[in-house]
Amino acid sequence: MNCQLLQARMSRRVFAGGTALAAATLALPALRAQPKLEKSKIALSVGGKAAFYYLPLTISEQLGYFKAEGLDVEISDFAGGARALQAVVGGSADVCSGAFEHTINMQAKNQMFQAFVLQGRAPQIAFGVSTKNMPNYKSIADLKGKKIGVSAPGSSTNMMANLVLSRGGLKASDVSFIGVGTAAGALTALRSGQIDAMSNTDPVMTMLEQKGEVKIISDTRTLKGTVEVFGGPMPAACLYAPMDFIQKHPNTCQALANAIVHGLKWLQTAGPGDIIKTVPESYLLGDRALYLASFNKVRESISLDGIIPSDGVRTALKALASFDPSIKADKIDLAKTYTNEFASKAKEHFKA
User: Fold this and answer.
1) Which numeric CATH code is attached to 41-122+234-350?
2) pLDDT at 103 over 80
């Protein structure tokens, strides 16, 4: 009896061991099946990384989501989106974390760029006038001849300012645009009176607004505000790259999209304390409470799943064509400005 018991125990162990071995063997092909990255070291440019506009990028970087996808991403931060784009055009960066509308602008110049994962579903840009320099401001016409701060000339903050001016009957040439970045430099420029108005992102604009230093005249930090300004949803920050790069590096682009969507999924349930613990201290601009107030204001504008909305793409083209004569709406092939192929797979993978 004891002998039979011993044999039964031994056969159970062998079976268990065999099952574990079989499970491990079954798991191996899945690991091997992960597509080989065509390029694992990626140079990524961004214009104003500390802004909430690019929070998903920072989260994915800080939480190691790029590394988890086998990527070594080196992020170069520039004063604004236009300069970050120049880095890709010049060949010093592979991919840009920037505003979707740059893909339309570049196609108008016969350069094909494509967005492949969305970070923001609203521009998060506010336009405000200085209460110190323009205490008697009444209408857009009052901005004629004034100095307007933007993150960098040609960036999305500049485009938003152009749109606001055009609706008030002014041309871009009626004002002077000054690049002030998206962090401490922007605060200093307005507070010291170097500029009369500013088009910028959060947390900068909320910090100035809460202290009564700017009067907000146009606001796209919420989904409702975005529809009021642009007439529909407006895709904002995304990862985009030259089309030939995407075609040659599909597995690498998939890995980048995976990392961003993983970050978006984390952001859906993250509390203010989680954000504070994750972003670099310098992003708080010395005021933790105001930083969190800003986050609460823009939270709904962060993409949920990385998917670029087709109606938003049409809104972007209509908005750009309304004030930029170099963009002929009928000459732009919108289908080439974006793809949801990678974001869709990432969404399914992470259940975002």
Assistant:
1) 3.40.190.10
2) yes
